[in-house]
Amino acid sequence: MNATTAFYPIGTPGIAWGAAEKAEWLSRQRRQRSYADEVVGEIDRLRERFDVVQYGQLTYADETHALFALRNRDWNDALPVVLVTGGVHGYETSGVHGALRFVDRHADEYAGRANLLVAPCVSPWAYERIHRWNANAVDPNRSFRDDSPAEESAALMRLVAPLRERVLVHIDLHETTDSDESEFRPALAARDGKPFEPDGIPDGFYLVDDSEHPQPAFQQAVIDAVAKVTHIAPADAEGKIIGSTVVAPGVIRYPLRKLGLCAGMTDARYKTTTEVYPDSPRATPEQCNAAQAAAVCAAIDFALAPR
C-alpha cells in the first residue's frame, strides 16, 4: 500500500471530513474498557496517601467523566514542581498505568524534595475506546494552546496555569503502537483530506526532546535508566525514528510548544515525551509500565541533582 492507494473507510480521498464524516466515525467507536474501574479505582486506592484533585469534567452525549490529578500531601511552595501526565492519548495504556505505578511505588521517595502533580489519564473517553482522538475527532496532543479545541487539553492547562513558571520537570508518558500505522495515521490523513504516507513503527523505547530548548544530558539520563528495564529503539536505515532525525540513541526532537504538544505546555527547564512500544515481542505490559515509571524517576533524579 502506498500514498496513492491507501484508503480509509470514511470520507472521500482528498477531501477533509465535515460534520457527516465525523458523525460516522463517532458511530463506529465502541467502549472497550472502564475508566471508572481501571483508573478511578486505582486513584481511589491512593487517596489514603495522596491528595486527589478533580480538575474538570468531560461530557460527551450522555457520558460524563471526572478528570483527576494526584498531589503529594506535604506540598511546599518553596519546592520545585514536577508534572507527570499520562493518557493524553487514551489508547496508550502504559502512559496511564505507568503514571499510577510511579505514584504508588516511587512518589514517596521525593517527599520534602519536590512537589508532585500527576494527571494519569487526561483523556478518559479515549481510554475507554482505546483511541487517539476525543469524541470530536480532535487529537488532544496537538491541542495544548490558547482556545484549545480539546476540553481534555484545556482542563489540564487550567489546572497547571498557576504553576506554569514553577514547573522544573514535565514528563509526558506515551506509546507508539502498531495501530498508529494501521488505524490512527490513516484516519488522520482521511480526516484532513491528505494522502496517507506509510512509515515504520520503531521497536523499542524512545524520547522526544524539545528542539527549541534541548536538554541532551537530561534525555540521556532517562534513556540510560529505561535501558535497564526495556530495549531502546534503534534508528532506521535513514538514521530516523518516525521520520525525525535521531540526535542521540533513542532521542528525537520536536518543537513541542509550536505543535501544541502536552510536554510543551509549561516553562519547565526539563521536559520530555516518552514513547514505549507495547507491541514488541520483546516487551510485556509489566515492562512497559515499569519503563514509564523508571523514566519518571530518572527525570526527577537528574533535575534535582546538585550541579
From TrEMBL:
The keyword Metal-binding applies. It comes from Lysobacter panacisoli. Residues 31-307 form the Peptidase M14 domain. Gene3D superfamilies: Zn peptidases. It comes from the Bacteria. The keyword Signal does not apply. InterPro entries: AstE_AspA_cat (IPR055438), Peptidase_M14 (IPR000834). Belongs to the peptidase M14 family. SUPFAM superfamilies: Zn-dependent exopeptidases. CDD domains: M14_REP34-like. Its cofactor is Zn(2+). This is M14 family metallocarboxypeptidase. It holds the Pfam family AstE_AspA_cat. Keywords: Hydrolase, Metal-binding, Zinc.
